[in-house]
Amino acid sequence: MFHVHNWKRVHLVGIGGINMSAVAKLLLAAGVRVTGTDVADSEIVRELAQRGVPMLIGPHDERHVPPDCDALIYTSAAPEDNPERVAARNRKIPEVNNFEWLGLWFGDKRVVLVTGTHGKSTTTALLGQMCNVGGLDPTVIVGSKLSAWTEGNLRIGKSDLVIIEGDEYAKHFLAFHPAAIIINNIELDHTDVYADVADVRKTFERLLHQVKLGGTVVANGEQEQVNTAVKPFIATKQLKVTRFGKGDGSKLKVSSSKLDDEVTVGWKDGSLHVKIETGKEVLELFSSLMGAYNGMNIAAAAIMARELKVNDEAIKQTVSDFKGIWRRMELLTTRDGVPVYSDYGHHPTAVRSALDALRESFPDKRIVLCFQPHHKNRTKHLFDDFVTCFDRADILVLCEIYDVAGRNAPEDEDMTSGKLLDAIQLRIKNEELKIQSQYASDPDEAVKVTLSLLKPNDVCVFMGAGDMDAAVRKTLTT
Question: Count of CB atoms within 10 A of residue 316's CB?
């Protein structure tokens, strides 16, 4: 067992990651000396540099690990043969990944994990802010940035309540033994880690076994895989399980053990309307966010906030004031009357949900989508779903795949956006769909082409988890 609170100087490999940067900030706030490395410069890296963190950008090198280093924390993108990790082992320096460190750092705290294939960041930010407004003074770590928090991706509180976005990639969330969890959904993703959706579900089941006895679970009860995962815990009453989920049409039903809760999501006076009913008690929430999927995120956060004893007025205020988070259908600008959004969606389900939200919000506008697939392995294994997920767009500019450092596999090298576009265009032709589509070799070209296609009655979204966002922001500010 590592005594992480005794470390005085820590080196971070991959410090520019969104979660890694939160780790760096937590260490700095605790008075720990921090150094770091990353393969590429970024806004996050520059932010930490401004705080005085010594950093080296470029190829990793064993000489980057300081001589008086107490420990090394690494991102999962840094493999075992990463030179800095090798140097740590050779020098008998403790090394842990960022989530293992968080699990140890907050081992004596009341941890709430927000999990699921989709919606984790928005739900985490909503729940964290509800608890903040409600006076619980939580520490919150989110895989995005919230403008209401000085640290963006981190809020440091003084209570024992810690809310963390729990990442299923590499089974990271198993580093925790939480007091409560939210499960938004369970789908196949991270196909370089999981064999199939059953493999994903079994990992969530392992997490459920790690929830403290009598702990709270808020789960999407209309999703088959989620229901399968939580069913044994409802039967044994080891955990307090409240289920919620989408029903027919615009209905969202929350099924607790008493099967008497209901949530309705729809549109009212231009706002997203979420109504939570528990017997005769009603909680109505109004949000400027778009899309039924955000109604689900709001409902999950509100239900968990109530379990944590947050008052309804704090929940209402948070939902009303919440304007979204970084790269989650974020309005970047209005260009010649055309709203331009950036969205992190990179899974077929997330793409569909985002396009549905745009179509619902802008029924008379032409939707221009620039999409950058993320990771060749994901694109290969979810290929058929990607072929059909762009149907609500009018124009698709498909950028070449962003491949993730440290996760490349030789058998995936032949997967390209060109192959995906060929399949999309064949389907467009065979089914006589009214979608224009074209290829772009890199983000800069993709941004240039997309912006050149815009007309006054359009809405535009740049989507993907890679470097597309950086490219569009650079273009819009120059």
Answer: 17
Question: Are residues 343 and 305 part of one domain?
Answer: no
- Residue found under tokens 């099924």: 255
Q: What is the CATH number of the domain that holds 66?
A: 3.40.50.720
Residue 168 contacts residue 117 (beta carbons within 8 Å): yes
Average pLDDT for consecutive 10-residue bins of the chain (478 residues)?
91 96 98 95 92 94 96 94 97 97 97 96 98 98 95 97 95 97 94 92 97 94 89 90 60 40 58 78 88 90 96 97 94 94 95 93 94 94 95 97 79 92 96 95 97 96 94 91
* DSSP class per residue in 121-152: HHHHHHHHHHHHHTT---EEE-SS--TTSTTS
Domain span holding position 279: 106-321
Same domain, 210 and 298: yes
C-alpha 181: how far from chain center: 15
Q: Is 324 exposed, middle or buried (0-12, 13-18, 19+ CB in 10 A)?
A: buried
Q: Would you state the structure tokens that stand for residue 320, as one six-digit string?
A: 């009303």
What's the pTM value of the predicted model, to 2 decimals?
0.92
Reading the block at residue 179, the tokens are 């007091």
Residues 389 and 249 in one domain: no
